[in-house]
Design a protein that fits this description.
By secondary structure, this protein is of the alpha+beta class. It folds into two domains: about 30 residues; about 40 residues. A two-stranded antiparallel sheet has the order 1-2.
Amino acid sequence: MSGIDTLAKAIILMGVALVVIGLLLLLAGRVPYLGRLPGDIIYRRDNVTIYIPLATMLLLSILLTIALNLFFRR
């Protein structure tokens, strides 16, 4: 296998990964309470809104860690 074949496969894999991530982001907006969990910080003043989804990030991190450990376990 030449270097160009390896590069082509890597680019295709990255494209597929971007499509999957995009679809997940589209579907994430439809999950109830995602982004509005207790522990998510919202700061509103006049024309400024700062949103820090701490609890949502923690929950997603735990779920992804469990899923990837189950998927890649040998």
